[in-house]
Every structure is written in C-alpha cells, then in structure tokens.
Amino acid sequence: MTAALAAWIDSSVRTWDLLRQTIVWILRGALRRRRRQVLQQLYEMGNRSVAFITVTLGILGMISVFQVLKQVEKIVPDFSMIGPAFIQMMIREFGPTIAGLMIATRVGSGIAAEIGSMVVTEQVDALRMCNADPVDYLVVPRFVACGIQSVMLSVYGVLVGVLAGAVTAYLFWNVPFETFFRLDLVQWGDIASGLLKAMCYGLAIPVISAQAGLETRGGSEGVGTSTTRAVVNASFAVVVLDLILSGFSYLVLF
Amino acid sequence: MIEFRNIHKRFGEKEVLRGVSLQVEKGQIQYIIGTSGAGKSVLAKHLVGLMRADSGQILLDGEDITDWNEQAFYKVRRRCATVFQHSTLFDSMTLAENVALPLRKHRGLSHQKALVRAMEYLKQVNMADHGHRFPADVGDGLRKRVAIARGLTMEPEYVVFDEPTTGIDPLAAANVDQLIRKLSDDFGVTSIVISHDLRSIFRVADRIAMLYKGRVWLDGTPDEFQETTDPVVRQFISGDAEGPMEFPGVRG
User: Fold this and answer.
1) Do B84 and A131 touch (CB under 8 A)?
2) What domains are there in chain B, each with its CATH number?
3) Full-model pTM
4) Lesser CB count within 10 Å: N end or C end of chain A?
5) Over the Cα atoms of chain A, what is R_g?
6) Structural element, H or E, at residue B23
C-alpha cells in the first residue's frame, strides 16, 4: 500500500515536471519550430474525436432533456425555462466535461500508445542521441494541439447537445424551438467557466498521457499497460479538475 | 577509455545490474555478451546517459560523467554514437534525411548541406543508391547499415552497437562485422558491441565480457573464452540448452 502510494506520488511529481518542461520549451520558442506538427496533430485529434463527440453529446442531450421534462411534468407543467436551464448547464458543465472525458479516452490513449511504442522501439532514445529532446519533439505539439482542439470540440459538443435536446423537447413535448433556444440564463461567467474547463482538460490530458507513454517499460505489453494508465489517469484528472474549476468559477466568476 | 565502476540498476523488483565493473581500452572492440535480459543494452545506455545508474560510476577518458545532466550528455552523445537494436530510423523521413538529422541537430548544418553530407556517409556503407527511399521500403539488413551511417555522421570516438548482426542474413552480417573492424583499424574508433552472434564475436572481438547474474562473469580475449573451463561460459558459447545457467524470468 505504501509502495503503491509512493509510486503514485513519484509519478505525479514527474508529470508536473513534464508540464514544466513543456512550458519551458514553448517559452523558448519551440512552437514556431513545431508549427507543422501542431497542425498535423490538430487535424488528427479533431478527426479522431469529432464523430465520437457528436454521438456521445447528442445522445446525452436527448436523454437528459427527456428525463428532465418527464420529471418537471409532474411538478410544474411549465416547460418555458427548460431550454435556457439546459443550455446553461451544457455550456458550464456537460459540454466541456463530457467532451473532456471523450478526449481523455480517444486522444489520451492515442498519445500514450504512440509515444509508448516509440519508447519500446528505442525511437525516443534515438531522438535523444540526435540531440533532439522528446519533450520538444513529441510533447509540445500534442500539448498545444490538444489544448486548442479541446476548446473547439467542447463548443461543438455544446451545439450538438443543445440541438439534440431541442429536437427531443419538440418531438415528445411539443416545446417550440423559440421557447427552447433562449439564452436568458446564460451569463458571461458561464461561458468563461466552460471555456476555462475545456482548456484545462485539453492541456492536462496530453501531459498525463505523454508521461504514461514515456514511462513505458518492456515490450508491446508495456504499451498496453501505459495506454490503460493514460486513459485512467487522464479521465480521473478531468473529473478532479471539474470539481476544482467548478468551485473556482462559482466563487470567482459566478 | 571507458570505465564502468560497480554499476547497479534496478527496475522495480528486478535488479538487472548488480555491480558491473568493466574497462574498455581506446581503439579496442569490446564485445558484451550474455542471455537476453542480462542487462547488456541497459549497461550500454548508461554510457550515453539514456539511463541513470542507481549507484556506481562511469568514467569517460578519466572524467566522471555519472551525474551529468541531459544538456551535458549531449556532448557525450556526440562522441559516443549508438546504433540501436531496432535500427530506429524515423519512418516519416527518407533514409538520407535520417542520416542528416544528427548533422542538423548536433552540428547545426542547413537542411540541404546536411543532405549532401548524408549521402557521403551512405556511400561508406554502400547505400548511396537508396537515399531517397523510406525505412519501411527496405529490408532489415539495409536499415541496419543506414543506422550505422547515421551513427558515423558525428565522427564519433566511441560507437555502441546494440546487436548489429541480429536478424540479418549471414552475408550482411559479415559486411557489418567488416565495417566495425574497419572503424577500429582505420579510424581508431573504440567500439562496444552487444551481441550474441557467436560467429561475429570470435571474428571481430578484441575483448569479450560476459554478463551473467548482473555481474561481469568473465572478461577476456576471444582465446581465453575459447579455452575457459567455466561451465557457464562453456554452455553459452556452445549453445547448449542443458547446463548450469539460470535464465532470467524462467524460475526453475
């Protein structure tokens, strides 16, 4: 138990150190040199996740609106505020967080598997032998691309979820679109909070996954282990960050 | 001269190196042999800072490099090239670009200049006609030669070859052996060769060290290895399945 705890602390310390190194490389201008890789990563990450996020947030939007309407029907049969409340909740919480969890599984596993197999085939060692730092070469482009893509996919996810919710409300309870699509409850604080969450998830996921990949030991079964670890740790980080950032936004941004 | 002093290294539960001491004289070809998992590659990676020892010292020409940081090790990596087991060419680059990479990173040459120089090195390993091809399009033997060419671009004083003849045909292997010999004889390069290809070992080695149970079991000339009466060494070089050797990972 103590050994497991020690290992966990050890690995967290190294993850923070990887984050520090990544930021140092970016400050030293790694971004300009890695422009092409960033674009390539943006394209790959977006492609990998967009269908996944469409389906998940679409279904989630449908189910939650259906469920809420069914309960509200029994209490106060007034559906006028359902749309605005749902939109606020999507922007502030569900859009970024569900998208974040999806990115953690889809993109996080990809990063860990890619870097992990480079470790076991000694490609990372070969980079270091060529005076090319793996953080600069491999982590920086993924870090930046995932940060951007997480924000974009969250915005997209909110749109899909809200649309699916509106269609459900219209089909099952005849809530007109004009009533559903009202932004009465949405304040700047909600949007800021949602975007902040999306960005933090997007920056945490690649660092955690890359760390898992870089620590791969052994052959191809090692790649499997670190991929699993990346997904578990990255999803866990999304949930914990959600708690911290929600608290922060309610206190600071309202 | 390279000197390992009492190197210990463990991975989790497994203690791979338990006090390895070894000296490699300048200009010599030192083979390191041993079963898979005996820690041959692990030992070699300590020299260029790709792995760090739990305890012990590594001296390069009398200088203690054990605790140097990553930045400082770049200097060491210029002087000690490493040819990896899997050749580790970058799939997204052509063979010539692979060879050019260290020229650009270590020497700061422009892309074009580096490519021209890269072709000269490819010629040295008889690969000049293949520079435009991608690693995935050529066989293992050719990839190995390109990896060696990439190692040579830095005109290193030391080269670590990690299983240079494993997985390639006997002719290509003889070719690689010849290249290793030539580097030592003509350019005074010191080589550390990790191998269990017995034919190469006795053809090229100046000295052989056998790793067993995390230590140097025997360190000597090829003749000493041929004549030794040590049962473990005898079993290894005759390739018997039966004998006193214990294999790591296989608990009997």
Assistant:
1) no
2) 2-238 (3.40.50.300)
3) 0.83
4) N
5) 21
6) strand B14-24
